[in-house]
Amino acid sequence: MDKKIIAVWFSCGAASAVAAKLTYDKYKDTHNVLIINNPVDEEDDDNKRFLYDIEKWIGTKVLYAKNTKIGTTSAVDVWEKRKYMSGINGAPCTMLLKKEARYEFEKNNIIESHVLGFTIDEWKRQKKFNTFERGNTIPILIENLITKEDCFNILKKAGIKLPHIYSLDFPNANCIGCVKSQSPTYWNLVRKHYPKVFKNREEQSRRLGVRLVKLKGKRIFLDELTVKDKGGKIKSWDCGIFCDTE
Q: Which of 107, 135, 160, 170 has a Cα at 20 to 30 A from 208?
């Protein structure tokens, strides 16, 4: 009989990279362990370099899962087509580029177990996935009591450079200018390091009537945000399994 499939959903972040390595090493002899990525155009270019480094580290190729029904891997295109960027139900880019791509992959592959990059700090997200999405998971980072900081250290010890975006004080390797963030601090960080991206989000959100930022309890447009405006600590929101907002 063919080996049963374990699907590891790799987001080009540190935690999912370590989860992929641990899962492959533990189950490669008994299962067909597939490392799967949902490509999104708006991620930093260095994420691709990180992906290739992880392939070499693990010793297997990363597969790509795309939503073939929409014909794009661009979040900007999704927002433009839907005339919607973000709201109380999250963002359409996560649903179309991540979740529905995963559903399509599941239709073509019988998956015994899913592995996600949830660390011990994120056990509530793991529980949420098990409750509302799929119960057939292997919480490999949680089982090993691994934190996000542990993941950074494991990669460093392995000689793997983290994605460039981490060095700019962003909390994760998600898309640049993620519309799920309401933080003034986050958006001014985008303005500082990726001014062209900020300008594009500023224009598109104003045109579509989307107030992406919350400042002192009030929603405002990006073009109303000053460089001096600040918020609290930037949250490491989720993108892929659920469309968490701050």
A: 170
